[in-house]
Amino acid sequence: MDEFEDVLKKLNKYDRTNVFSKIWFCWMCPYFVKGWKKEVDEDDIYRHRRKHGSELLGNKLDAAWKCEIKNNKKPSLLRVLVKLFLGEVCLIYILICIAESLRMLQPMLMSRLLSYYDNNATEGNKNEAYMYAVLIVSVLFISVPCLHFFQMNVLQVGLKLRIACCALIYRKALKLNKAALGEVTIGQMINLLSNDVSRFDSCLQELHHLWVGPLETVIVMYLTYYYMGYSALAGPLFLLCFVPFQSYLGKLISKFRLRIALRTDQRVRLMNEVITGIQVIKMYTWEAAFAKAVDLARGKEMKSIRSASYIRAINVSCALILNRVAIYLCILAYVLTGNVLTSSYVYTMTTYFRLLNSVSMFFPRAVTTAFEVYVSIKRIQNFLLYEEIEPRAVEAPKITDDEKSCIGIYLKDVSVRWRNDSSDYTLENITIEAVPRRLTVIVGSVGSGKTTLLHVILRELYPVEGTANIVGAVSYASQEPWLFGASVRQNILFGQKFNKAKYDEVIRVCALERDFELLSHGDHTLIGERGVSLSGGQRARINLARAVYKVSLLQRHQQWYFFDI
């Protein structure tokens, strides 16, 4: 019961609160009070909302992506994301429409209030001044919560986009076939999960300026013309002249963004190779040469980052300067047309041009963000289109039950290739029969296809032609020893139950007894990632022992052991 109460306490209170509390963020008050009384730790943090769970979002995007691939010759990840999240985004954008509409009322109300204090004013009384003051406060009272509620919800949608894409990338990485793994590097996948998906976090906060900015410009131009005549159009027209230039800068930044991503992939790939082979580098004293190569890769990346930063600085500077120049042009035109400046005119003009920041500042940023997000989506889409390991129906030979007890592996006229776009076969017209309880050795020269044949038997590489039938469970020891950060015993058991008699026999036949004597804590010795604390021979023997220890409970009489040496 106590555990249930603890879980209930940690449930996110957002889903259990009323609309007023959500808009005014009252549901967070108990959390702030707790933080005021004591230091907040991990146990005090609420659980995430169920709709923000990685499994749920990943399943939704995965199903939509599979449907997109099935129904379209040219699948588009952007189209899938729009279908999934457009409705939710449109509902949230209603809030920003309300907030922006109320913001446009403020200059008019403030102008009427200032006219009461204007010496040249000929109308207005105290009651009207009170009325406009109350209206101004009311507008702020409504628009500010709408704006903050919009910002919170739009960040949540961006977070859901990021979580869904991360889940899909992770699932895809686990299903890549051998051909795809030859093209994709770990550095590229890390870059996708760190840099590219991070664009979703705040993109929706800025993308609405793509349509709010032009719409606000038209409305503000009409209002300024209505109240102040033709002179008020000088500033907005001046701003509109620079919109194409700023859009071009945004497109230019997106090109540099793609170049930066590619060069970052190259640098991460190089660093991964250096870290992997650091022992060899130190042994041959190649530090200077590899440090120079890393510096060169980083220099190319920084050159692209520097160029993109210069363009972004020009874009931001234009946004800051153009707004003030536009105000000056409006005031100058107003005076040159024979009008007299008043405080209400100057304030109204200044306030309206603050609203036009969505054109002079936020619109270029929105264009830049849109191009950057598009580039990131295309990179993720290209990764998702790599070939996967998927069970495919192959024509199995007709074998009787009696024959199945003898024949465990049957390949007939099998032809395979690593890349579908290649016309050359790695293996061609291979026919093999292997029976249980008999040693079968495949020999050949370097590059003749021995490992490729094992991948066919392991169903990691599918035949382009021919038939393949494998009866029985498989235990595989790869050519490259693979270990994980745990004890030696855990690496051998690999999740299997510990059987002392069987374990001791495996240790004996794999010649690990002497190694255990040399290790400080025997088979309980912790080894580092990839077995860096062990010698090459020790890693190979542990890798072999893991394969030998594995046994299939359902098909113990048809257990196959494959050793790639």
From TrEMBL:
Transmembrane segments: 80-102, 129-150, 233-253
Occurrences of domain ABC transmembrane type-1 (ranges): 94-369
Keywords (A to Z) from UniProt: ATP-binding, Membrane, Nucleotide-binding, Transmembrane, Transmembrane helix, Transport
Alphabetized GO MF terms: ABC-type transporter activity; ATP binding; ATP hydrolysis activity
Record carries keyword Transmembrane: yes
Coiled coil regions, renumbered to chain: none
Entries under InterPro entries matching the protein: ABC1_TM_dom, ABC1_TM_sf, ABC_transporter-like_ATP-bd, ABC_transporter_C-like, P-loop_NTPase
UniProt KW GTP-binding keyword: no
Source species, domain of life: Eukaryota
One cellular-component annotation, GO: membrane
Name of protein: ABC transmembrane type-1 domain-containing protein
Organism: Callosobruchus maculatus
